[in-house]
Each structure stands twice: as structure tokens, then as C-alpha cells.
């Protein structure tokens, strides 16, 4: 009995389920996959793959040599040369490979189309099970703004301005800029990119009796077009969704000044 051959064939037959999942839940800012045990993963993948194979077999009109497939799955290849000539076996293997390749591609495309449909109808926002992005993507794109912390209708905005309090060797700094991109690893935010960044040093307020109260000092423009901040260095972060006037869109630097007014 050839156990390795059996495992390879069974894995090939399970790929349609994996392909559908890859098409549906992989992409930019995708949420991490569910934490399933090996048995749970095999069961869920095998159930869908079995359904796909049943539908495909109903559509195939040619004769299928299930006797050979069963022997290969069982790892029993001793008498295989007596059942089918070598040239016929080669033809069957090629058809088996082509059959699985077509099914895998179709399932992957179906997964991608389902992903597009779910996002277009905003089912990922309304149904947690169908969420396709990580939580940071929804937050920084204007979702999760109601008082219960649940996803809702997307906020209408023109600019996303970020105030990030960062601990540096020179003390606490407040960085403000226009959010242009961010990078995540699963559900964890790794870094953010700010355009036209401003930097302020936090200074103590003598007029306030509360201990530890500080206010931002003068703003200084930083050289360069983009500023990269690592999330591990950020103490807290504030996000502003700004609607710019239609007749006069303020510059990003001026918007940053407006968004950062007040105490921290």
C-alpha cells in the first residue's frame, strides 16, 4: 500500500475547496483565516470539494474509470498494469490533471466573484461571517463609527487626517499628516504612511492643574513627501474624516493644522 500516493491524490481532490477559500478571503488587507484544527479544516474543505465533484461528474458524459481511481486512492498499484495499458493510463492521468485544473480555476474565479459581490452589496459590513478585510481596513475607511463599535454605513469624507502620538528619544512627539497608505499583518496594524507631515513637541501646560497634561507646541514641516510611522512606536492615534469645501479644497498642511487644534 502506497500511503504517499493516496495522500497526494486525496489532497488534489480537496483543492477545489481551498481554491474557493483563496479566491474569497485572500487579497489586500484580508482578515486572517479561521483557527481550525486539522480535522475541522479537512471536513469543511472536503464537504465543499465533494459537492463540486458531484456537480462536475453529473456534467461529464464520458465513461469514468472509478476502478482505477479507487485503486490509486487505496495505494494498491500492484495489478494496475493488467487493468489498463500504459498508453491508456497516461491518457487517464492527463485527463485527471486537466479535470482538476479546470475545477480549481473555476472555484478560484467563483471565490473572487463572490468577494466582489459581497463588497458591492456591503454584506461584509452587515454580516460578520462574511467580513473579508481586517478591522483596521474598515476603521480607516470610515466604518465602525457608531457607538456600539459595530460596522455601519461608510462615512462620507474627502481626507483622512491622522494625529499620532509617538514616543521618541527626544520625548513625546505629535505627528499629523494625510493618511495615504497603511500596512497590516493579519489583524495587526504594522505601519502608516502620512503625506505632508507636521511634527509638534508636547509641552507642559502651566495653566492647568491636572498632572501630566500637555499641549502641542509649534508645528514644523518635515522634509520629504511621506512619513512612515511604525505602529509599535505609536502611543495613541486619532483619525479625522474631513469633508473639504467644494469651492475651495484646503491644502493638506492647513487641514492638518485644523485637525490638530486642541489638547492631547
**Roughly what is the average pLDDT, rounded to an integer?**
77
Number of domains: 2
Low-confidence stretches: none
Largest β sheet strand count, sense and barrel closure: 6 strands, antiparallel
What amount of the residues lies in strands? 15-25%
The value of Rg in angstroms is: 28 Å
Secondary structural class: alpha+beta
Task: Please count the beta strands (DSSP E, at least 2 residues each).
Answer: 6
Number of helices: 8
Written account of the structure:
The chain crosses the membrane at residues 43-60, 92-114. With 264 residues, the protein is an alpha+beta fold. It has two domains: 3-130, no CATH class; 136-259, SH3 type barrels (Roll), CATH 2.30.30. It is 42% helix and 24% strand. The protein has eight helices and six strands, in the order αααααααββββββα. Strand 1 and strand 2 form a beta hairpin. Helix 1 (3-25) packs across helix 2. The radius of gyration is 28 Å and the shape is elongated. The model has no long low-confidence stretch (mean pLDDT 77).
Essential attributes:
264 residues; single chain; alpha+beta; transmembrane helix; SH3 type barrels; 6 strands; membrane; elongated
Amino acid at each position: 500500500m502506497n500511503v504517499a500516493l493516496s495522500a497526494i491524490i486525496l489532497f488534489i481532490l480537496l483543492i477545489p475547496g481551498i481554491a474557493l477559500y483563496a479566491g474569497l478571503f485572500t487579497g489586500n488587507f484580508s482578515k486572517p483565516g479561521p483557527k481550525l484544527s486539522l480535522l475541522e479544516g479537512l471536513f469543511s474543505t472536503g464537504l465543499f470539494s465533494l459537492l463540486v465533484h458531484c456537480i462536475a461528474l453529473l456534467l461529464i458524459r464520458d465513461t469514468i474509470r472509478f476502478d482505477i481511481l479507487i485503486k490509486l486512492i487505496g495505494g494498491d498499484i500492484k495489478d494496475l498494469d493488467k487493468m489498463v495499458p500504459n498508453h491508456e493510463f497516461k491518457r487517464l492521468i492527463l485527463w485527471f490533471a486537466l479535470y482538476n485544473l479546470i475545477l480549481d480555476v473555476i472555484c478560484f474565479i467563483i471565490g473572487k466573484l463572490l468577494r466582489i459581490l459581497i463588497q458591492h452589496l456591503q454584506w461584509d459590513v452587515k454580516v460578520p461571517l462574511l467580513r473579508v478585510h481586517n478591522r483596521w481596513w474598515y476603521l480607516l475607511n470610515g466604518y465602525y463609527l457608531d457607538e456600539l463599535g459595530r460596522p455601519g454605513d461608510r462615512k462620507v469624507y474627502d481626507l483622512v487626517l491622522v494625529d499620532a502620538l509617538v514616543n521618541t528619544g527626544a520625548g513625546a512627539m505629535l505627528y499629523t499628516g494625510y493618511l495615504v497608505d497603511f500596512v497590516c499583518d493579519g489583524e495587526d496594524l504594522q505601519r502608516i504612511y502620512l503625506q505632508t507631515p507636521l511634527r509638534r513637541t508636547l509641552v507642559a501646560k502651566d495653566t492647568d492643574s491636572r498632572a501630566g497634561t500637555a499641549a502641542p507646541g509649534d508645528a514644523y514641516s518635515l522634509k520629504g513627501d511621506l512619513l512612515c510611522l511604525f505602529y509599535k512606536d505609536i502611543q495613541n492615534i486619532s483619525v479625522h474624516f474631513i469633508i473639504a469645501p467644494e469651492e475651495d479644497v484646503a491644502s493638506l498642511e492647513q487641514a492638518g493644522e485644523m485637525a490638530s487644534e486642541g489638547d492631547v
